[in-house]
Each structure stands twice: as structure tokens, then as C-alpha cells.
Specification:
- The protein is about 75% helix and about 0% strand.
- It contains 20 helices and no strands.
- It is globular, with a radius of gyration of 21 Å.
């Protein structure tokens, strides 16, 4: 029986560009190019998604872990990254197999009241996500150029509008810009490693010897692991693959998914390197110098100046700015997907940008502590996470939806274990955070 695959009723048609033509040649086996050239047309969606794994919220958690416990929790970042690869690969696979994104599948398969409830939760989540990312970019402008925080927030809004305008030119220019930001962040942390001169023997030791140092280290590990999978990019990643390169041939679909797996592994690998580098830098610079009470991003920046010099602190601020701008852009894209998918309604990306950034500007204007707000925004994300991960696993295990790309039983079991672990740790983190308020 031929596989029935749904085509998104809100996605734009696949663009006939040089990129897609090259991709179809590879899938059909007619491409004569080398291996790297055959891979390149499929690289992009995971690089957009991976920005969420090194957004400003990760900066505070990783720096705090390194400053307080040295290299102790580096293994948590490595384990978290493997989990991220699994979940994001399922999201990419859902888009390829069904021609729909996760929100659309939820709208089609769940009762209307549940769909509306999920939409409300995800809209709140989108605002919380944007809060962290917008604040991070504003902090980056503030630290790098000395611009007052509110003016930096306005500048962040203008810059993200300009980046989002690239969508009109097709998927490739926006992918290129976001990938460029990923590269900037990665290069910044390569430079930070040069300044910090970490003990690589200790890094390797703690990477392969899981351990804790008391209840507080467990809580920090929960914070790192609990923030691993961001709900908004689970929805977004499926949307990025649903209409980018479309094929209904079972063999070509399998081949397409294998290339998307390469995209996921490379992009999430870079994100894992950046997160590990954040912790390693903090461990070497702060913990190694006896400065274990780094409680905010601003403190980390200011403390780097006397310890490593102005150049190192400037590189740190540049990485924060690149992270904030790119993740704010990705957050807006995810918000669009969520509304279109759950409600089958489309609003201007400019209006979406204005709505999601208003809470951020209000927070900045009222003078709230940015780092504290970042922490609280992660609590909201923790609450929203099950509403993305659980449906994803339920849908990708169904042969009537996924066809030849249905999960292997081992994949489903592994994903269920990962989801349960992440959800439990998120709920633990949520409890501890609320208790401490």
C-alpha cells in the first residue's frame, strides 16, 4: 500500500533554488559531486535549531557550574548533548515523513480543547523564551558598547527585525546568517580557551567519570540537563524540514533523513562544544582563581577583565550578543510556527516580533535584575517541555503517520527514557526554584 503523507496547509512550496536542485540530484543518485558537496544542500535546519542550546540562559547556568565546581559537571553537558541530538532528530524526521510540523500534527490528531490548551501554553512559553534571548542580546550590546540597557533593547529589536526580513529571500539566506552566528559563538569560545589555558587532562577525566559533590551540584546538574531540550525548537525543527526538500519516495526519504542526521550531529556537536567551553572557561578562570560566587552574566564579564584582560571579556560579550540576536530571531520563527500550526492562523512576523518582545522591554524599563529574570523564564520553559516532547515521541512511533521513517522500537524506548529523565529533572528544578522565590 502506498504511504499517505500529508502536505502542510500553511507551509510555503519548496523553493526551486540551486540548493534544492542539488539536493534532489543527490537523493536521486544522479549527483557527480564529492561527499562534502553532496552533504551541503542538507545542512541548515539543525543549525537554526541548535541556537537554542547556546542561548543566554545557557550562559548563566554553565558559568555558574564551572565557577562553583570546576570541571566536575562537564559530563552532564556531554550527556545532555547526546539527548538533544536524539530529540531533534525525531523532530526533523517528523517534518520529513508527514509534511507537517509538530503543531499541525497535534491540531489534526488531538481534540480541539487540548489543542487550544497546548497553544496557550506554548504562546506563554514563546514569550518566556523571547524574554531570555532578548535580554541576553541587550546585555551583549550593553556590555560591549556601554549602551544603556533600555536603548540596547531597542537596538536588539531593530536588529532582529532586519535578520527576520531575510525570510523573504528564501530559506538559505536566513540559514546562512544563523549559521554565521553559530560560527561566531564557536570562534569566540575557541579564543576564550586560548586565554584560559585549561587543564585538558582534568577536562577529559571529568568528562568520562560522572560524579557529584553534594546536593547543590545535583541541582546545578538538573539545571544544565533540564534546560537541554527547548520546547520551541522541537516545534520549529519539524517546520524547517517539512517543506524544505520534499520527497515521497520511501528510499529517498530514508536517504534524506540520513543527511538530516548529519546536520543534527554537526550542529548539536558545535552547540555541545560551546556549552562545554563555557563551563571549562569558568572552571579554569573563576574556580581556579578562587572566584566561585559568580552570580550573573554581568559579574562574569566584569571579573574576566582583571583575570584575563579586556580582550577576553570583549570576546565573551561578542559571543553573548551573537547568541542573543540569533536566538531571539529563532524564537520569533518558532512563535510563528506555533500559532500557524495549532490555530491555522497567520500573522505578520513583524507583529509577532512586537508582541513577543514587549514583555522584555517592560522588564528592562522597570529595572528588574536580568539574570533573575533569565532564571524565572527557564521555569516557564520547564513547565512547557512535556507538551512538546511527549507528543513528538507518540507521533514518531506511529507507522500510519511516519511510514518508512517510523521509530525503531529501541529508538522509542531510548527517547522515552530521555524524555522521562528530562521532565523529572525539569519538575525538580521547577520545585526548587519556586521554593526559593
Amino acid at each position: 500500500m502506498a504511504q499517505i503523507v500529508h502536505t502542510s496547509d500553511i507551509s510555503t512550496p519548496t523553493e526551486e533554488t540551486d540548493t534544492t536542485k542539488a539536493a534532489y540530484a543527490v537523493l536521486q543518485g544522479t549527483s557527480k559531486q564529492g561527499l562534502l558537496a553532496r552533504i551541503l544542500p542538507f545542512i541548515g535546519p539543525a543549525f537554526i535549531a541548535c541556537i537554542a542550546y547556546m542561548d543566554p540562559g545557557n550562559f548563566a547556568t554553565n558559568i555558574s557550574a564551572g565557577a562553583r565546581y570546576g570541571y566536575l559537571l562537564i559530563w552532564v553537558i556531554l550527556a545532555s548533548n547526546l539527548m538533544a541530538m536524539l530529540i531533534q532528530s525525531l523532530s526533523a524526521k517528523l517534518g520529513i515523513a508527514t509534511g507537517m510540523n509538530l503543531a499541525e500534527v497535534c491540531r489534526e490528531r488531538f481534540p480541539r480543547p487540548i489543542v487550544i490548551g497546548m497553544w496557550v501554553i506554548m504562546e506563554i512559553m514563546a514569550m518566556a523564551t523571547d524574554l531570555a534571548e532578548f535580554l541576553g542580546a541587550a546585555l551583549g550590546f550593553n556590555l560591549l558598547f556601554g549602551i544603556p540597557l533600555f536603548a540596547a533593547g531597542i537596538l536588539t529589536a531593530i536588529t532582529t527585525f532586519l535578520i527576520l526580513s531575510l525570510e523573504k529571500r528564501g530559506f538559505r539566506p536566513l540559514e546562512a546568517v544563523i549559521t554565521g552566528f553559530v560560527g561566531v559563538i564557536a570562534v569566540c569560545y575557541v579564543i576564550e580557551m586560548f586565554f584560559a589555558k585549561p587543564d585538558w587532562g582534568q577536562v577529559v577525566y571529568y568528562a568520562v567519570h560522572p560524579q557529584f559533590a553534594g546536593a547543590e551540584s545535583v541541582l546545578l546538574a538538573a539545571g544544565i540537563l533540564g534546560a537541554t531540550v527547548m520546547p520551541h525548537v522541537i516545534f520549529l525543527h519539524s517546520a524547517l524540514t517539512q517543506g524544505r526538500i520534499v520527497t515521497r519516495d520511501p528510499l529517498q526519504m530514508k536517504r534524506l533523513f540520513r543527511f538530516e542526521l548529519i546536520d543534527v550531529v554537526v550542529a548539536m556537536g558545535i552547540a555541545g562544544f560551546v556549552n562545554a567551553a563555557m563551563l571549562i572557561m569558568a572552571a579554569q578562570v573563576f574556580y581556579g582563581s578562587g572566584v566561585s560566587s559568580v552570580g550573573s552574566i554581568e559579574e562574569a564579564y566584569k571579573t574576566l577583565v582583571p583575570l584575563l584582560g579586556g580582550a577576553a571579556s570583549a570576546v565573551f560579550a561578542i559571543s553573548l550578543l551573537a547568541s542573543g540576536l540569533s536566538s531571539a530571531t529563532v524564537g520569533t520563527m518558532a512563535g510563528q510556527v506555533i500559532m500557524q500550526g495549532f490555530l491555522h492562523r497567520r500573522i505578520s512576523v513583524w507583529l509577532r516580533r512586537l508582541v513577543t518582545m514587549l514583555p522584555s522591554l517592560i522588564v528592562i524599563y522597570l529595572g528588574f535584575d536580568p539574570t533573575r529574570v533569565l532564571v524565572l523564564s527557564q521555569v516557564v520553559l520547564s513547565f512547557a517541555l512535556p507538551f512538546a516532547v511527549v507528543p513528538l515521541i507518540l507521533f514518531t512511533r506511529r507507522r500510519d503517520l511516519m511510514g518508512v521513517l517510523v521509530n525503531h522500537r529501541v529508538t522509542t524506548i531510548a527517547a522515552a527514557i530521555v524524555a522521562a529523565l528530562i521532565i523529572v529533572l525539569n519538575m525538580f528544578l521547577l520545585y526548587e526554584t519556586v521554593k526559593g522565590i
